[in-house]
Structure formats: structure tokens, C-alpha cells
Amino acid sequence: MWFLDYKPPELLWIDGSEENILDKFWSVSDGDVGGNSKCTLERSEEGHLRFHGNLQLSINHQPEQKQGLLASFFNSPSPKLSKPGFAGFSSKPFVFEEDIDNYNVILLRIKTDGRKYYFNIQTESLPGDSVFRAQVQTTPGKWQTVKLLPHHFRLVSRGVACTSSPRMNWRCIRIVGMAISDGKEGPFDMSLESCSLIYDESVELVDDT
Questions:
Q1: Cα gap 149→146, rounded to integer Å
Q2: What HEC string does the chain produce?
């Protein structure tokens, strides 16, 4: 339920300057399951969560099993890589200690190389190979604040957008992450300073049914 006379303070969700931030995330690329892409997730000297690497569209070595949200996209008893050129990172499952009922917008403080990235959310009701995905558009080389609204997210299963998409249940977020899969070879580099939740009275929040 929304209270129109109450505007909660900004809630810091991911803080790139946190010393143990890397303990809360996994990274994965198609290089882990038969491709040649490589990625690295690290905390930069400036105190940002930096994700960089190189995407390749070829298939090569034998895969190894990975963990985390993005790994569920790949892992199976006999994993087969049909579409290389993918890398991403995701959080370990978590539960919000705070009540997020009064929040409806995600704010990303981010700098990228201008390539197309996605912000992924998995809720409690989704199977492991599905996420709600929103595209993140930025200007290359500049720190920017990106606003993601509930209607920006679309359901994706194993990397393919679903023709019918249920509404995302905002209050049941379990895992979040970011990914790149733009069909282009070459280096990529993005940094995340923070991810926050805010309330905007002009944005409607609707639960799934």
C-alpha cells in the first residue's frame, strides 16, 4: 500500500566502495561453458565495482560448472553453448532487511564504454534460468545516474525475451546483476558506484498477479 503523504529517504542497495563488496557477487561468461569470452569483476582503486573483459563470438573449450544467477542460464547436466558472446555478474541471494514497499525506482550510478548493458532482477517466483531485464543506456566515459522504472523490465528466459511477460513482483527481489550480450566482439568496461532505491510519486508500482 502506498502512502501519498510519505516519501522515504533514498535507500542505498549496492555500495561499490564497500570493502567486502566482492564477497556478495559472482561473475560468469560464455568462456566458462565452451566459449572464449573473458570477464573480471573487481573493486577499483577509486572504490567502484568494476566489470570488464572481452567478448568473443567463437566456441572453443570444455565448460566448467559455475554458480550464481547468471550461471543458471548455462549450467545443466550437459551444457551446450548455442549463442556465445556473453558476460555478466550477479549477487548472491539476499533478503532486504528494510521494508521496500515505499520504493518504486532503481537508481544506478554508473560509467560505461557506451556498449549495451542490462540490469537483471530475479524474484522468488522465477525459475533459475529466467530474469526480469532492463536495458541500461549511457554516454561513453561519463558518470551518469540511470533511472530504472518497473515498466522498463521485461521477462527473459535463457537469454530470449518472452512473448508474454508477467509484471515483476517488486517486493520479492532475490538476486540482482548486470550483463552484456550485444552480439559484438571486443573489450568491454563498466563501473558501478552505487545502486539505490527511491520513491517517485509519479511512478506507478504494480505487483504481478
A1: 10
A2: CCCCCCCCCCEEEEECCCCCHHHHEEEEEHHHCCECCEEEEEECCCCCEEEEEEECCCECCCCCCCCCCHHHHCCCCCCCCCCCCCEEEEECCCCCCCCCCCCCEEEEEEEECCCCEEEEEEECCCCCCEEEEEEECCCCCCCEEEEECHHHCEEEECCEECCCCCCCCHHHEEEEEEEECCCCCEEEEEEEEEEEEECCCCCCCCCCC
For the entire predicted model, the pTM comes to 0.82
What count of other Cβ atoms lies within 10 Å of the Cβ of residue 137?
Answer: 11
Residue 207 pLDDT class (50, 70, 90 cuts): very low
pLDDT > 70? residue 94: yes
Instruction: Tell whether the torsion through CA atoms of 135, 178, 50 and 58 is positive or negative.
Output: negative
